[in-house]
Amino acid sequence: MADKQDLNAGFTGTPVEQPEGLAKAAQTAASGVKREVYAVTVGARDHPHTASALLLGIGIVAFGFGYLLGRSSAESPTRSYWR
């Protein structure tokens, strides 16, 4: 049976070959997203009232936009359900 020390020998936690191409682009994008998410969370933590007002405003605008899209895609208004 191998010793645990022998199994861990040489492992540094990073790959031997650096990523190239699509893997490098994905890694760069992921690190950028992590930085932006951290910046947003720090801003929300520092200004909780502004963050909640912003989220509420975005929710109201999204609801209104969805309502208008739903109304515009409804069937013709000549047919009434309340006759």
Strands, helices and their partners?
Blueprint (H helix, E strand, L loop, with lengths): L3 H5 L13 H25 L1 H25 L11
Describe the overall structure.
- It is built from three helices and no strands.
- The longest helix is centred in the middle third of the chain and has 25 residues, at 22-46.
- The mean pLDDT is 82.
- Helices cover 66% and strands 0% of the residues.
- It has 83 residues and is an all-alpha fold.
**What is the H/E string?**
HHH
Question: Structural class, from helix and strand content?
Answer: mainly alpha
Oligomer: single chain
- Strand fraction band? under 5%
Q: What is the β-strand count?
A: 0
Alpha carbon gap, first and last residue: 84 Å
Low-confidence regions: none
Query: What is the helix tally?
Result: 3
Evaluate the radius of gyration. Answer: 26 Å
Biggest sheet statistics: none
Shape: elongated
Overall pLDDT metric: 82
Helix content: 55-70%
